[in-house]
């Protein structure tokens, strides 16, 4: 089959007879920009020195958890926090500054924090005191004041004196006394309150006192067991307190009472109290409240004597940058006495802050908190109540302990006290984990849900320098090295006794 020959178009025909059609002007060509990247074949460019391979590299799929991923992508860090609050040190993963702002984190939707409470754990000598004092001192620039709610070792006295404040020393034979059954601000202006507001305040005050008495009674022992505090004891104590203050009689001005007065009334009950508690006779009242009365009597003549058995004798300047209640004079009395004092101070400080004005921001430091928690289930409940109220009062509860298992030493495995103590960890969304021995690593991973990389940071990197800590802000971990100013380092130094011995 012959190939059909195509004819000439108009342009070619005119060209053959010597005519040229006018051309449309073409725009000038743009200069080509240099290319930064050029496509390369899978096996590379087939030239000398261009990495060409006769076969492609095998591709394999891998699965890993989020705590394993940094091993392959080490520069992927936790999402950064807002640059608000106190600048604590260097974020080792991002290389930037690390800022701590607990209340600001609660208000920020992008930060997984629902309460501003802080738990700080660390082996002695790893920088717990330095980190705590630096946080308190630097947050003062943002309007925060600090209350040291019990200083068992006088660690905060140099900081107080540097700020022009003299700590209150509490001990046997000293003039400073604190009444844990003080009304606090809720007792002011009682005569001008309407019935509804008076009932609301009474419920708060008597509830706080009942929590305190429950914790104090539960701290006593019958052999190896703690003294029980049941619903009947609760009714007796509540009615006795209402009678002592005049609330049961409908008085317009309530009277302040004390724990010795409560014990004295229970030991010498009135007919009105016996009837209100639904006992058939005074003899039945004595028989069924013997354990309660003996526990209170032991406290009045023992751990509370000369300390918390009378009206408050100190005047606290709540406008000062810091206030501290020193308990070092109680150390010879044992850990239980210090724990009972911490329980009383916790209840008293909560009462003083129940009507805090908006913007009155305060950091409440609870050092050696494990001594209070080891007093039994009721003492744990009292500590639990303080943490739960922080979200509504605006205070930041800063609890300091050695390791998370200190919270579990309150009772037998599986007991109610241990269950409540575990829940305490969830009432503090911010945890500062300083250096720990390797033996504590498994405990950290089990109780706090840390992965192996975070655990190794605490037991490895955290032990290589003071102030190194893993800050757990909600579920986000941050590898932070606290940097102290020389003046802060001097105020945070706690090895004076060792220096003297050397």
What topology does this entry show?
Blueprint: H1 10-16, E1 86-91, E2 97-100, H2 102-107, E3 118-121, H3 128-139, E4 144-151, H4 157-162, E5 168-169, H5 195-218, E6 221-222, E7 225-226, H6 231-245, H7 259-267, H8 271-276, H9 282-288, H10 290-301, E8 322-326, H11 335-352, E9 361-366, H12 370-373, H13 377-388, H14 390-393, E10 396-401, H15 416-426, E11 430-434, H16 441-448, H17 452-459, E12 468-473, E13 476-482, H18 486-491, H19 496-501
Parallel strand pairs: 3-10, 3-11, 4-8, 4-9, 5-8, 9-10
Antiparallel strand pairs: 1-2, 1-13, 6-7, 11-12, 12-13
Helix pairs in contact: 5-6, 5-11, 5-13, 6-7, 7-10, 11-13, 13-15, 16-17
Written overview of the protein:
- The model has no long low-confidence stretch (mean pLDDT 84).
- The chain has 502 residues and is α/β, with parallel strands linked by helices.
- It folds into 2 domains: 77-178 and 312-501, P-loop containing nucleotide triphosphate hydrolases (Rossmann fold, 3-Layer(aba) Sandwich), CATH 3.40.50.300; 190-287, no CATH class.
- The protein has an 11-stranded mixed beta sheet with strand order 2-1-13-12-11-3-10-9-4-8-5. Strands 6-7 form a two-stranded antiparallel ribbon.
- It contains 19 helices and 13 strands.
- Helices cover 36% and strands 13% of the residues.
Q: What would the average pLDDT be, to the nearest integer? A: 84
First-last Cα distance: 115 Å
What is the H level of CATH, i.e. the homologous superfamily of the largest domain? P-loop containing nucleotide triphosphate hydrolases
* Name of the CATH class of the largest domain: Alpha Beta
List unreliable stretches of 5+ residues. Answer: none
Instruction: Find the count of extended strands (DSSP E, 2+ residues).
Output: 13
Separate helix tally: 19
Q: How would the global form be characterised?
A: elongated
Beta-strand level of the residues, as a percent range?
Answer: 5-15%
Radius of gyration: 35 Å
Q: In total, how many domains does the architecture comprise? A: 2
CATH topology of the largest domain: Rossmann fold
Largest sheet: 11 strands, mixed
Structural class of the secondary elements? Answer: alpha/beta
Helix share bin: 25-40%
| CATH architecture classification of the largest domain | 3-Layer(aba) Sandwich
- Spatial strand order of the main sheet: 2-1-13-12-11-3-10-9-4-8-5
